[in-house]
Each structure stands twice: as C-alpha cells, then as structure tokens.
Records
---
Amino acid sequence: MSRRTIVLFAAIALMAVALAACGGGASSGGGAALNVSVTATEFKFDPATINVTPGQTINLTVKNTGSVQHTWVLKAVNVSLTVEPGKSATRTFTAPSSPGTYPIECDVAGHKEAGMVGQLVVK
Ligand SMILES: [Cu+2]
C-alpha cells in the first residue's frame, strides 16, 4: 500500500466515525424526543419521576388540575413553567448530558414543603 493510499483510507475512516456520531441522535443527541404529560395538583406531580437519556429532547406538557397556581421547575436546565388552575403549559427542553438525578419542584410558597417535588432521572 502506498503512503498516499493509507492517508486516503485514514481520511475515509475518520469521516465514517464522524458521520456515525452525528447520525444517531439527530439534533437531540439522545435519541427520539420524549413526550411527557405531567398533571399538577395539591400537592403533587403525576408522574413525579421522569426517566430520560442524556441530552434527550423532552416535549413537556404540565396540566394543572388543582385549584391554585402551580409551577414545574427544573433548575438544572433553567426550565420553569407556571400553570394556572385548569390550564396547561408546554415547553421543549434538552435533558442534561450528564447522568444523574435532578430535582423538580413547585416553587409556589409552601408547596415543595408539602411534597410537591419530583425528579428527572438521566441515565
Ligand atoms: Cu404547587
């Protein structure tokens, strides 16, 4: 094999690796987008735990079926939704790229203390 041929093969191999790295995750980096519907009421989220993969795109809808205002706050990625009673709100965001358990809370005074918390589990 000539030196030139080896360089050419190396370049092709590198391109294949680069394409493979980009191809799988599209823009999300973590596979297909996840649609999540959360119901908020006094004083809990259902579901409270959301399981995602690192960097996954999440299309979140929070519906407030309670009788007072609630929020759904995931500080790790600066997502904060405020939802009036009887209404719903949506947001698309990207999950953290590092595996771990990230706390979710309702930051209306007293609600977190009353148990209105959840978690985003990235793994
Ligand atoms: Cu609340």
Note: Confidence is low (pLDDT under 50) at residues 17-28.
---
Amino acid sequence: MFTAEELYIQSHIDPEGELLSRLNRDTNVKLVRSRMLSGHIQGRMLKMFCRMINAKKVLELGTFTGYSSQCFAEALPDDGFIYTIEENDELEDFINEYLALSPNKDKIRLLMGDAKKIIPTLEDEFDMVFIDADKREYCEYYNLVFPKVRKGGFMLADNTLWSGKILDESEHDPQTEGLRRFNDMVASDERVEKVFVPSRDGLTIIYKK
Ligand SMILES: C[S@@+](CC[C@H](N)C(=O)[O-])C[C@H]1O[C@@H](n2cnc3c(N)ncnc32)[C@H](O)[C@@H]1O
C-alpha cells in the first residue's frame, strides 16, 4: 500500500512504464521479500542520476528481479552497460524472463555469484556503483568497489536508514549493525563527499573526489 504522499509523487513524475509495472506486480505476486524491489519512485530517481552524469558504465550489487538494473539501463547510451551481480540462483530464470522483454537487454550483463568474489575480477572503471546487496556486508563492498570507481564517479548505497532502525538504540540485529558501521565509515572517509537522501529507506549518495 502506498501513502498519500507516494501516490501524489507517482502521479507527478514519469510513469513506471508497462514492462516495469508488470515486473513490479509479478515480483509482488510470486516472490517473498518483494519489498526489496526499488519501485516506481526510486527507480525513476536511479535513472535520473544515471542521466545527470551521462554514465556509461554502471555496476550494481544485488539484482533481485532486475527492476533497478532495467531503470539504470534506460538512461545508458547504446555503448553503455550495467553489470548487475546476484548470488541467489533461484532468481536467475525470473530475472532473465524479464530481461528478454527489455528494449535495453543488450546493455544489461547479469553476473550470478557472490559480489565479493566477482568485484575483484572486473577490469572496468565505473561511473556509478549501486550498493544494494547484503546489508551486513556494505563495508566490504565499499572497500572492494572504491578503486573501481573513477575519480568524479558516484556510489549510491540503498537502505541506509533501514526503516529507522539505525536510530533505535534497542536494535542490534546484524543488518542494522552492518549499516551503522557503513554509515560511520563513509561519514569519516575524507576521500569522498556524501549526502543522505531521506527518501523511502534512506539513500546515501557518495562522490569520489
Ligand atoms: C535489496 S535486493 C536488490 C534489489 C534491486 N537492486 C532493486 O532495487 O530492485 C538485494 C539482493 O542482493 C542479493 N545479494 C545478497 N548478498 C549478495 C552477495 N554477496 N552477492 C550478490 N548478491 C547478493 C540478494 O539475493 C537480493 O536479491
């Protein structure tokens, strides 16, 4: 269910589009933890970020059903691409079913496996990295992707408010603790500029100086 504010925003931004709307609905009907999918508002934001910096090479950690990958891909030029990494092989057929329908399928390169193992094998330098996999491992992802982001490039980290649990001192589950460590690490990293967007579940935008 959407809040009145979300419904208002959705009706005043670009539409989600027929394919993404179907993917969103199908994810909700067929899969558990469908809330992980970025959704209409954040999806349009990710596309816009990609446009704003004319990104050509994007890396995503955590594909889930491919919703955010498809949003990024909409803004990529014909010679651009997004690598998206997913370790849950039960999702592979579902992801590929929807990738096959996408007009941007040639720009999306799905890599199945653990992001921590795959990142060191990638030789490209990225304009943008979207960190959206296991919340306990955000610090490791950050350290692994940092050298692969170009100077002047961006990292976006999703769920950094974690439904407000970050601020709740009684919460000590591993995901919340992982995100606290990550937020503190980024806050004290002088190699980057950072802002927090308090939309949805918190999105940290990190600029590599
Ligand atoms: C929040 S969902 C991604 C949502 C997607 N980016 C979107 O916005 O629609 C997180 C995904 O990361 C995957 N994941 C968790 N740990 C991972 C790892 N170490 N390597 C690759 N994928 C991982 C999970 O299986 C899950 O599908």
Note: Residues 38 and 139 are 21 Å apart (CA to CA).
